[in-house]
Amino acid sequence: MHFLKGTLGVKQSTTNWAVLRECRHEPLQFFWFRSAVKLFNSMLNTNSDTLRRVVQAYLNLQPRSSACWTAQLLSAFQGLRGCESYVRAVQTGHAIPMQELTADLKHRMRGVWRDAELVDPNTHNNKLATYFSRNERMPINVPRYLHLDLSKHVMRNISRFRLRAHTLKVEAATWHEDGSAYVTNVLVKMNMFRTRCMLF
Length: 200
Hints:
It is a single chain. The chain folds into 2 domains: 2-24 and 111-197, no CATH class; 28-96, no CATH class. The chain has 12 helices and no strands. The longest helix is centred in the C-terminal third of the chain and has 18 residues, at 180-197. It is an all-alpha fold.
C-alpha cells in the first residue's frame, strides 16, 4: 500500500480500498488465499505417497484441532457463496475448482463497494461512498491519467481529487458548515479541470 500511495502521491491515511480500486489491484489477501488453495490442490495431485499421507493426516486432525492449517483453510471459506461445497471438497480430499473460488473471492472483496453504493455522499461524510459515486462508471482498465507523462504535482492533485485525499484545510472544512463555500469552490474548480483535460 505504501508503494501505491507513493506512486499516486497521496497521503498514507488515504482509504486503502479506494487506492486499490484506483490502481486496479486486488488486496494481497486475495492472492494469498488463492495461492493457499492452489497449494492444497497440487498436494492432492502429487506423486509423493509421503505428501499424500501428510495431507490425509491433517484432514483427519482438522475436526479435533483448530490450529492445524486445514482447519484454518476451512475457516477462511466462511462468507463465500460456495462455502459449503469448498468445505466438503477439502474434507473429502477433492480439488477445489479455482475458477469458481476466484469469482467468489472477488465477490466477497467487492462487498465494501456494494455497501458504499447504499450511502448517499451528499448526506454522509463517507470517502468510499464519495469515491464510488464519482467513479461508478469506471472502465476496467487503469484510469487514463496514470498512463500520461504528467508531472508529480499534477498527478498528485488528480489523485487527491479522485480519492478525496485533500489537504488538511479542505478535509477540515468538510466537517464544518462555515467551510462549505470553500469546499464547493475547490470542487467546482477541480470539476472544470477534469472536464477540460479529460484525464479520468
